[in-house]
Task: structure prediction
Amino acid sequence: FVIDRSGSMSGEPIVAVREAVAGVLRQMGPNDRAGVVAFDTDASMVLPLGRHDNKKSQQRVLQMSTGASTNMSAGWLMAHEMLRSDCGDDRIRRIVVLTDGYVNQGITGEDELATMVSIGRNSGITTSLIGFSTDYQEELLGTLANAGGGNDYWCESADPAARVFQREFEGLAAVVAQNIASTIEPTDVVAVAGILNDFRVTELDNGALRVDLGDAFGGETRSVVIGFHLRPHSAVGVVDVASLRMSWISTTEGFAAHNVTVPINVTAAEAGMVDSGADPRVQAEVTLLEAAKDRRESRRLANEGDFTESIKHAQKAVDKLQALPEHESALEQARQELNAMLDRSWDEQMSKQSFTSSREMSR
Result:
């Protein structure tokens, strides 16, 4: 756990975080280990990597005090070094960062920070991030979660801190696969290929796209939508569009590596024929992701003060979600955002809520 203890965390926030971390330490299993790092202008080790289910260790966490600036990279690098020195390949290793403000010390650039956490991921150490209050940089934390193969959360106040830590801890116990990646290699018939979801996408030298999906949990279904724009094609019959290679490391089979390749193809019919067999599940997923895109654009425009255009995108999102009865919660959130733009009650808290909700839709 990498805990922001900058001055803005004084009072109720640091108390809630200390109690949440101590609560997780009390629930650790006999084979689990944890370490705690705190950072402000610099980083310091609160607890080394190990078993900390005793009162003395938990008391050290409960006594953490606040300091000055926000040097998240110092805290992350110290935690990374702790886990990197733990060379066992049969463990799930994760850094969980909590911050409530803007990074203003150490490494501060988004690209540099993303490179930092991706290096950790390449060595089997994933990173999740928790934003606290309404001052943290939500776009930065989302980017880092993508690069680090972990999750990102928002704690609106001190109350949800324990639930968020618990959710992340329970998620680690349910991981069945790590480093899941989908590599799409288009054929010459493809003019443009893209991913509709909000996952980290890397374009490889051969034109292929690598999509990093993070970890998978038992009982979970993960959807990824790939869009292809094909070049004009005159021949009738099967058209090879791309090959799709899935790779992952199974945590239930001794951390064994797996690779599976499947073809993606379509059937070209005679001119004028219409395919009436489109999969409604795919159509619904595309609609959901398009609605999430509209919400993100609406949020951006509202934050810039352009409510005329933001309202248009917000209304598009509501219209699309109305066609998806299984996403009633997302529809209600989109309506709240639209109403906040209409009556000009849009604020920083609504912006954070919108980012978190639309990002969950996209992932």
Remarks:
- Residues 139 and 355 are 8 Å apart (CA to CA).
- The chain is about 40% helix and 30% strand.
- Residues 280-303 form the longest helix (24 residues).
